[in-house]
Amino acid sequence: MFKRIVIGILTFVLAALGLCGCSFFTHDTERDLQQKVAYVKPYTITNSVMEGEGDDQQIKVVEYATSGKTVYKRDLVEYVNNNASNLSQSFTDPKAMYNYALSMLVNVELVTNEVDALIDCGKVEWTQAESNTVKKSIYSIIDNTLTSIKNEILSNRGQEEINTDNDSVNSETTYPVKPDADEDDDFSDIEDIPAVKPWNPSESKYPGIHGDDDTRSLEREAMRRFVALVKDRVNDDFRLNQPERKWLKSKIDNEIKALDRLINTEGIVAVYPKIGDYSYPMTESESEFGYIMYYISGESLERSQKITSLQSYLTEGVTVDDAEITRDFESKLNEQRSLYSTDVAAYNSAMSDDSTTVLYHPNNNYFYVKHILLPFSDEQKDALAQYKKRPEVAGAQEDDQKQLIAEYRARLAEAITCYPHENGEDDLSRPMTVEQVMSHVQSVMRPLEANVARADVTFDDLIYLYNTDPGAFGNNKGYVVKYELDEGEDETYMQEFADAARDMRDNISVGQVYGEPVITDYGVHIMYLASVTKIGAVSINDYTTPGRLETYFDVFEKPVRAKREENAYNIWERNVLSYNYNKYTETYTDNFSDLWED
Fold it and tell me: What per-residue confidence (pLDDT) applies to 502?
């Protein structure tokens, strides 16, 4: 059930990504959409908390009064329209589909009530970190919508649209931001951990400020249309006139006026850092801005974050039997030892499969490499492609051709402009050359050559600082490389990358950076020898990587713990969620049965 509720929340968010959510069935009228389809009655949630210390501890009962929540036909239609593809795969009966959708909308309200009660009594915390997560996601929605608007403008002009093939609507930043260190990290030697600061979007993301005249003009026009779009989204929305929404309606009316003043005095470029303003709770925010986006998407994102907090609360007491984990590990190890000792092809297949945890190595023919990719620009890639087509290049002998291409790529590499990443975005104020990045990487890594564990996590930090290859982020082991290929076996990587990797394997030690940057058709690679497999079996308490981020015990514990946690969710669902649904929810089938009867 919890997974279904999370999916239910996410469909609200996905609906907000395009700021659409207004494509209704043609037979529905505005009055028809205002009908109630469900109502969650007010009720009281009771929690017990411990107060005092030592012998003075006592149990205190804290009561939390919920408010009534109405689900309208418009909510139901929006939910189904925006999640139609997923729902149609699960349901062939329209009646069952709409009833399921309504149950999800009601459950979202009930779960939110439970989390709010836990926050109220202090059992669940809402910290600056949670607020930052919501605000980042709000800006992700703003950024994705701005990109869609820009592409619409470009399409109308007959110009090439912005390529978003590699973009994810769920990504909060252009590049991933390294997760906080685990509490058990052996390198947690900082005495005073600084408080989490409020997150704000990087100035490099502000539309209409950076780039050439055409780019700035396009971004400003997109921002103007975005403001008009969000104003239109909240204009005359009857749900904002309900008693429980009057505070938000008043804030939104004031924000529209404040946006107009801001645009008239400071220009459209001043809107971006203001319109996504968010703090928790918004009812107590002193800002003039942020309420429109809170209504459109922020509230759903806030609920999603609350559900995550509730999941952590419900599972914090879950325990796992160590003996069971050990038995699972030993069973898998014995299975692999028996298979891989006689079937090298099966071993090779397992090593090329990221989903397989290899516990037994019959040979040491594999090793792992990490890298930082400093890419060629699209213009440089086009220039390289055209260069390869020149008659004097295409018609040259193979060795001469390779030499010509290598020399041309080297010249292109000298012109690469790199930017360190700040909060997952290029810091455009700090352009760097490949030589400068390489110099910095080497200066950081050389003192750590005797400390492989520290070197491994430090190179990961440098990946998050400079790298642009999506596959390198969060790749704790690195890319696996086969040292000696079988006869007729194709190379997995570009030849220059593979050759440099094997040269590292032969001539440097684990924990060291390759002495020179490696250039391929993708750009420049700064390479690092992460680990080399050893013949034989691993032990259950061995670390999976030199960086000591997790052990094999941790790997085998995860699925077992997940099952225990799912059981905890199921118990909570039976004892709390289903009970509240049956006791406090009223549904009005007659008000929406026409959706499947017509």
Answer: 97
CB 38 within 8 A of CB 587: yes
Question: What's the pLDDT score for residue 3?
Answer: 54
Highest mean pLDDT among 10-24, 192-206, 447-461: 447-461
d(CA 149, CA 160): 13
Residue carrying the six token digits 């055409």: 214
d(CA 592, CA 590): 6
Cα separation, 595 vs 598, in Å, equals 6
> Cα–chain-centroid distance for residue 67?
32
Instruction: Say if CB 528 and CB 283 are below 8 A apart.
Output: no
Distance CA 357, CA 540 (A): 12
Q: Which residue has the tokens 């596959």?
A: 471
Is omega for the bond preceding 179 within 30 degrees of 0, making it cis? no
79 burial level (CB within 10 Å; 0-12, 13-18, 19+): buried
**Smallest Cα–Cα separation from 461: which of 446, 450, 476, 451?**
476
Amino acid at 400: D
Q: Is the dihedral of CA 103, 106, 108, 114 positive or negative?
A: negative
For 63, which DSSP code?
Answer: E
DSSP-assigned letters across all residues of 413-480 = HHT--B--EETTEE-TT--B-HHHHHHHHHHHHGGGTT-HHHHHHHHHHHHHHH---GGGTT-SS-EE
DSSP string, 354-386: TT----EESS--EEEEEEEEEEPPHHHHHHHHH
Return the axis-axis angle of helices 398-414 and 378-389, rounded to nearest 10°.
160
| Percent helix, percent strand, percent coil in the chain, to nearest 5 | 55, 10, 35
- Going by C-beta distance under 8 Å and a sequence separation of 6 or more, which residues neighbour residue 407? none
Cα–Cα nearest to 96, from 590, 593, 558, 492? 593
> Can you name the residues that pair with 481 across neighbouring β-strands?
367
Calculate the alpha carbon distances from 80 to 1, 95, 98, 528, 571 in Å.
19, 12, 7, 49, 29
Of the listed ranges 33-37, 93-97, 420-424, the least confidently predicted one is 420-424
Kindly give, in sequence order, each residue whose CB lies less than 8 Å from that of residue 509, ignoring residues fewer than 6 positions away. 449, 529
Whether the Cβ atoms of residue 52 and residue 58 lie closer than 8 Å to each other: yes
| Cα–Cα distance, 128 to 401 (Å, whole number) | 57
How many residues are listed for the chain in this entry?
598
Distance CA 47, CA 68 (A): 20
Q: Which amino acid is at 450?
A: A
| Closest of 141, 88, 79, 140 to residue 108, by C-alpha | 79
The tens digit of pLDDT for each residue in 461-485 reads 999 999 999 999 999 999 999 999 9
Q: Which amino acid is at 428?
A: L
Phi, psi of 396 (to 5 degrees): -75, 160
C-alpha distances out from residue 145 to 7, 99, 435, Å: 21, 31, 37
Determine whether 56 is exposed, middle or buried from the number of CB atoms within 10 Å of its CB (0-12, 13-18, 19+). exposed
